[in-house]
């Protein structure tokens, strides 16, 4: 399907730099490699090549979720795709699932979760800052459009919440051990919790709190490292730089709480 006015696209230069744009009649994409008239892209097919005003080549595509996540506006650090992919699989986010998020930030993880749960799923996301909720909502709308199955709530998962029977809980908050009682009361038996934590001292405090409840099993902590490779002719080697530590991921599965 050809690009239409209002379509979100990504311009990619020969060095692999990505630039998000929403196409507008009469609009222009500007970069240090010249400008491209949006009118030249409207009506073109995804994968088209355009030449800028100074002769530089750009590829034009629909942005993947990773393209958008890494280039969207942000007011905070984000959970990076290398961690998001593991969270989605290890926490077993599935179509139709009910998911609780504690901590919204700029909305990176929330974008992926909403895509996975699909229209039959439900996501309830808490944050203590209204400005972050508003910012995340804008990022979500820019990429996903309307999300009627999402509820954004001003509040803290450290305190009791009214919702129950979540299949999964994902926490990106500084002190997730304070949310253990919320997890115990809001997760269904067999449900999975994942906490994203930058430091190992936070991990230790959360794991200790989770184990003390006797309501969780299969408690596991992992770290995801990502290294790509350089392949050019006979030069085949790992790249000198890699995406190292971003955060630790702690997973646990809930039992029926002992009475």
Describe the structure.
The structure is a single chain. By secondary structure, the protein is α/β, with parallel strands linked by helices. The protein has 2 domains: 8-63, Vcp-like ATPase, Chain A, domain 2, CATH 3.10.330.20; 67-254, 3-Layer(aba) Sandwich (Rossmann fold), CATH 3.40.50.150. 24% of the residues lie in helices and 32% in strands. The protein is built from 6 helices and 15 strands. Helix 3 (108-117) links the parallel strand 7 (98-102) and strand 8. Helix 3 packs across helix 4 (130-144). The longest helix is centred in the middle third of the chain and has 15 residues, at 130-144. The termini are far apart. The relative contact order is 0.11.
For the biggest β-sheet, the strand order reads: 9-8-7-10-11-15-12
**Overall tally of domains:** 2
Helicity level: 10-25%
What's the CATH first level of the largest domain? Alpha Beta
Count of DSSP-assigned helices:
6
The shape, in one word, is globular
Low-confidence stretches: none
For the structure shown, list the relevant keywords.
Vcp-like ATPase, Chain A, domain 2; alpha/beta; 15 strands; 259 residues; Rossmann fold; four-stranded antiparallel beta sheet
């Amino acid at each position: 399907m050809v690009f239409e006015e209002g379509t979100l696209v990504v311009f990619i230069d020969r060095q692999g730099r990505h630039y998000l744009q929403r196409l507008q009649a009469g609009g222009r994409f500007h970069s240090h490699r010249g400008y491209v008239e949006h009118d030249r892209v409207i009506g073109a097919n995804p994968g088209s090549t355009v030449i800028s005003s100074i002769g530089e080549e750009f590829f034009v595509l629909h942005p993947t979720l990773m393209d958008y996540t890494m280039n969207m506006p942000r007011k905070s650090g984000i959970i990076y795709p290398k961690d998001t992919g593991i969270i989605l699989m290890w926490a077993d986010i599935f179509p139709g699932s009910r998911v609780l998020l504690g901590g919204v930030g700029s909305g990176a993880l929330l974008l992926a979760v909403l895509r996975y749960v699909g229209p039959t799923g439900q996501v309830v996301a808490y944050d203590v800052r209204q400005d972050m909720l508003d910012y995340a909502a804008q990022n979500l709308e820019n990429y996903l459009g309307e999300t009627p199955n999402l509820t954004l709530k001003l509040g803290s998962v450290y305190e009791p919440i009214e919702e129950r029977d979540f299949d999964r809980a994902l926490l990106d908050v500084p002190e997730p051990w304070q949310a253990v009682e919320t997890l115990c009361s809001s997760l269904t038996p067999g449900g999975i919790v994942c906490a994203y934590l930058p430091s190992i001292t936070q991990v230790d405090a959360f794991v200790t709190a989770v184990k003390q409840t006797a309501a969780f099993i299969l408690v596991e902590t992992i770290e995801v490292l990502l290294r790509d490779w350089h392949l050019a002719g006979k030069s085949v080697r790992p790249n000198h730089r890699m995406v190292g530590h971003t955060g630790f991921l702690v997973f646990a599965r809930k039992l029926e709480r002992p009475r």
